[in-house]
Specification:
The complex is a heterodimer of chains A (354) and B (467). Chain A is mainly α. Chain A has 14 helices and no strands. In chain A, 66% of the residues lie in helices and 0% in strands. The structure holds flavin-adenine dinucleotide (FAD) and iron/sulfur cluster (2 copies).
């Protein structure tokens, strides 16, 4: 990991540890105040506990022009991104996408081209609905590895993280504690429950929490839709297409709507917020990722609407191309933060119990 | 609002200062429908004076209230105050502040302040002091938001230079903004511009040349300009200029605005020497919070107004970390070199101290443990353990001034006066009138109590007069 980023975070953490005024805001401070000196692993853990709500920036009496120049949200955001890049595997891919929105767009185009090519050259094996454009077997052949490879990559990254932050043997209770924090997005409400300082300097709002909830639950619903389809296909021999009043469709449409609206909201929020309180270098990569995720949702909805028209194969290529790019980039984009954050919360639960 | 030309030329209430007292006055006055102007000399990032450095306020309560546990009665509060001020307290005004503090807490919440449980390392205050979540700057931010919602006009970088006093009436206010002179009139005027501690020349006149070496813990903007202007016009004052609240802080702190992180809590576990490597006071006299303020004056009395704390490895984890890491060496001689102390003299002082230490088996870091030296002057009467275990650590100490006491004399309506009677339209709140209550000494969290209580009173009275 980059020494200068860690050193800057350490300098700031030492000031915070002598001050402690922000202790009530989030999980970062109680964890920070448990020690006196900060190892690289400690700082990596703190960085992954922070969700960049900026409460501690606007509350800080030491921000520039003060010579102590506190900007903890930024310092932790930089260490956080650096940690994801350093732990990601394989390395040559790791350092492209967090900082380069353009690289994400390129991946999308490649995914789209690949799917178009697949539709052209493999085509249907006589299926109905979308399978009329691309056979079920071809879809599985493309998406099974596209789903599994990133998972393997994530596991490698998270194991490296766990070793760095001195993780202990995980107990069920640790996981339950972490999941309950994440499900409520407790930290995103801030210690007093009035939200983040993301839109208008020090005004607290719930906007970011709400769009984040929309994105997370939208994504989970879409994922559930696919899973439901898979179970129906293999378990009950009920292949697609499904009618509107079916589990995959209901989950998929509501998920797609939430995802699209959530991502649009998140982009709008990011445009309003001060980029200098986050990782400026990652701004393009983050926007690129949100747009990609939003595009997955939107293209899925459009595909549903145009499903019985001549535009269907083109939309299918667009949608599946975006899904492919999204899956493959998971370990190397902002998508990884969900996994790291959950891992950090598990580690924090261990700290609290010891 | 950043532009003097967009202001009205006349207001019901004009308030000088932009800290806690000013904001409490502004919100209270605006809630009655009065038009209110805040003139704050600091630029926006530094708005809020010393209030932006605070962390809690002291609050009377019967039964749990907000973050506060158990009870804290009026009499106990007053007794605590009398203890630290040695009885130099205006009991009538003090009781008024204490009694009103209880209703302040919910009022503060209604105006946007969030509280949090007592911070780690400060559990002893969980009953008496309510901590602001995010500290004083977040309180100040919340109040500015509420004030602006109530229609209060705020002008930053508006430096008030003069209040024109004629026949016990303030006729107008002069201020500079954007390199130009401006004048505004108001039916009522509230002074909430703090003490004069950031004016080193004034401190030097009161304290002598030693004051040049004092550090100022809070804002560089409280230079007492308005206070001096009013004193020149014979407005009644209280307190004397040599009284200030001062503590011993890390000698490497910046000249201004170092705030809370520069405090050092290690004195009870140390020996403290002057630049000649001689001890000069009992480091173990009492638990640290109670001695905190004494050491500011002790260090001010030493040559070059500097002290040096020496501890060894076994004490390093017994106190809250401070912002700068300690100097460190494997030998005392090495530490002396790093600190610029005479090495042989330091060796003698430490050896003499170590030889005077006795049985340390009763050592207890958070209680008066009676582990004392024998036959040593000055004695160390608690926590006296020999300094033997390398590495050795050192901090330099300087006097850090929190605020000055010389201020405007007010009555129970926060109203100012001259020898010929009350000034019809002038009130004062906060640090600038704290001397009306505190003659000397200080009780943690009482500054914000005074500012909140008297800010609200001043706002109410000023608005009533204007309407
Ligand atoms: C590091 C530190 C920690 C503290 N912690 C606590 C604590 O935890 N609890 C507590 O109760 N007290 C604490 N205090 C004391 C507390 O800060 C003060 O008692 C309190 O803030 C005073 O409020 P005030 O509004 O009177 O003054 P301030 O908040 O200092 O406000 C004065 C305002 O006047 C403005 N001003 C000055 N001159 C002019 C001028 N000529 N024209 C226009 N504006 C002017 C200043 O810019 C400032 O905005 C602390 C002090 C320090 C330094
Ligand atoms: S961010 Fe600033 S106010 Fe908050 S704990 Fe750190 S130093 Fe203190
Ligand atoms: S930005 Fe928010 S989450 Fe991150 S450390 Fe500050 S208060 Fe905590």
């Amino acid at each position: 990991m980059q020494i200068d980023l860690l050193q800057e975070a350490r300098r700031q953490a030492e000031i915070c540890n002598a001050c402690r005024y922000c202790e009530g805001y989030c999980s970062v401070f109680p964890s920070m105040h448990a020690g006196r000196a900060f190892s690289d692993g400690d700082l990596t853990q703190l960085a992954n506990l922070c969700h960049n709500c900026r409460g501690c920036y606007y509350a800080c009496q030491y921000t520039a022009p003060h010579e102590f120049d506190l900007n903890l949200p930024k310092a932790l955001a930089e260490v956080r991104r650096d940690s994801w890049e350093s732990f990601a595997w394989p390395q040559p891919l790791a350092r492209r996408f967090h900082t380069h929105g353009g690289a994400i767009a390129l991946a999308l185009v490649i995914g789209f081209a690949l799917l178009l090519w697949a539709i052209r050259s493999i085509g249907s094996a006589g299926g109905d609905g979308f399978y009329a454009a691309l056979s079920h077997n071809a879809m599985v052949a493309i998406f099974l590895p596209a789903f599994l490879l990133p998972l393997i990559s994530l596991v490698v990254g998270l194991r490296r993280y766990w070793a760095t932050v001195d993780g202990q043997t995980v107990r069920l209770g640790d996981i339950m504690a972490a999941l309950s924090m994440a499900a409520k997005m407790k930290d995103l409400a801030a210690g007093h429950g009035e939200g983040c300082n993301f839109e208008d300097e020090d005004r607290f709002t719930h906007g970011r929490r709400h769009v984040h909830q929309a994105i997370m639950y939208g994504f989970l619903l879409c994922f559930a839709a696919t899973s439901a389809g898979t179970v129906m296909h293999y378990g009950f021999d009920m292949p697609a297409p499904y009618p509107l009043w079916s589990l995959p469709k209901l989950l998929g449409i509501s998920g797609g709507l939430l995802l699209t609206v959530g991502c649009a909201g998140m982009v709008a929020l990011k445009l309003k917020s001060d980029p200098d309180l986050g990782d400026v270098h990652a701004w393009g990569g983050e926007i690129g990722f949100i747009l990609l995720l939003g595009f997955v949702g939107l293209s899925g909805l459009v595909l549903y609407l145009l499903g019985s028209t001549a535009l269907m194969p083109l939309m299918l290529a667009l949608h599946l191309g975006a899904v492919l790019a999204f899956f493959l980039l998971t370990p190397f984009t902002k998508m990884a933060h969900g996994f790291y954050r959950l891992t950090a919360l598990i580690r924090d639960a261990q700290r609290k119990r010891s | 609002m950043n532009d003097a030309t967009s202001l009205a030329t006349s207001y019901d209430v004009a308030i000088i200062g932009g800290g806690n007292a000013a904001l409490c006055a502004a919100m209270t006055a605006a809630e009655t429908g009065a038009s209110v102007l805040i003139l704050e000399t600091a630029p926006k990032p530094y708005r809020g004076g010393n209030s932006r450095h605070t962390r809690n306020f002291r609050c009377m309560h019967s039964g749990p209230l907000g973050p506060l546990v158990e009870d804290y009665s009026e009499d106990e509060y007053l007794a605590d105050l009398m203890k630290v001020t040695g009885g130099k307290t205006d009991e009538h005004l003090a009781r008024l502040a204490i009694r009103s503090s209880e209703e302040c807490l919910p009022w503060m919440q209604d105006h946007g302040v969030h509280f949090q449980p007592s911070l780690s390392g400060t559990l002893s205050l969980a009953r008496t002091n309510a901590f602001f979540m995010g500290g004083g700057k977040s309180l100040v931010n919340a109040y500015y938001r509420t004030a602006q919602k109530l229609g209060v006009d705020v002008l930053y970088e508006a430096h008030v230079t003069h209040l024109e006093l004629n026949d016990n009436h303030i006729d107008w206010i002069d201020y500079t903004h954007d390199r130009a002179d401006h004048r505004v009139t108001a039916k009522s005027v509230i002074v909430a511009s703090g003490g004069f501690q950031a004016d080193t020349d004034w401190l030097t006149r009161a304290w002598g040349p030693a004051a040049q070496n004092f550090l100022i813990r809070g804002t560089p903007y409280n230079r007492g300009v308005v206070l001096a202007d009013l004193l020149d016009q014979d407005v009644d004052s209280v307190g004397d200029p040599t009284q200030c609240h001062a503590v011993a802080i890390d000698g490497r702190a910046p000249k201004f605005d170092g705030g809370i992180v520069t405090r050092l809590d290690c004195v009870p576990f140390s020996i403290v020497v002057n630049k000649n490597a001689e001890r000069f006071y009992d480091e173990g006299e009492d638990v640290w919070p109670k001695r905190y303020a004494i050491w500011g004056r002790l260090v001010a009395g030493q040559p070059d107004q500097v002290g040096y704390v020496i501890i060894d490895a076994k004490s390093l984890d017994l106190f809250m970390p401070s912002v700068f890491p300690p100097l460190k060496s494997d030998t005392l001689e090495g530490l002396a070199a790093e600190m610029g102390l005479p090495a042989d003299k330091l060796r003698t002082t430490v050896d003499t101290f170590n030889a005077a230490c006795g049985d340390t088996s009763k050592f207890h870091p958070t209680e008066l443990d009676g582990v004392t030296t024998t036959g040593l002057t000055p004695a160390k009467t608690n926590w006296a353990r020999p300094i033997t275990e390398p590495p050795f650590y050192g901090y330099s100490l300087r006097t850090g001034v929190t605020f000055t006491y010389l201020g405007l004399k007010v009555d129970e309506n926060a109203q100012c006066s001259t020898p010929s009677g009350p000034i019809k339209n002038l009130w004062a709140a906060g640090e600038t009138m704290a001397g009306s209550i505190l003659g000397q000494g200080y009780l943690a969290g009482f500054g914000m109590t005074i500012g909140t209580v008297f800010g609200r009173i001043a706002g109410r009275e000023a608005a009533a007069y204007a309407n």
